[in-house]
Amino acid sequence: MQIETDEADLAIAVFFRDTDGTHSIRGGAWAEKWQSIERGFKRAGFQRGVPMLPKPTSEAWLLCAARTAPYQNCSALEELPGNQVSERHPKKELARVFGEEKSSQALREWLEEHPFEPDRAMEMSSYRAFRERLTEVLTTVRGRA
Fold it and tell me: pTM of the predicted model, to two decimals?
């Protein structure tokens, strides 16, 4: 909130965290984490907070775009295990799709050549929740500008 005062402008905050976890974690864990992040923003008195909580990890969102059939049946990717030792962990699945594990810079470059299509990724509930909240916050900020 200090930056808003310093810059005489409105700010938004995006709190990013992978859901991770294993299949042994009960099904409501994602919703509990989302609500916890929202409560944290409210406790801080910050109304323009956006949870970014990929299920199970952000690599699942990238996989949705990078697969042979991009943006098809992406909701199934949210059911991949978040446990990094699993052979089906999204990071390992993404490496298989690319034929190698890409660095953050290489992923950024790939995204520059293959822009993410947000409307086509809405099948993933965790992405949809993020995008809807981001849109809500940006609409509020634009309305005050």
Answer: 0.90
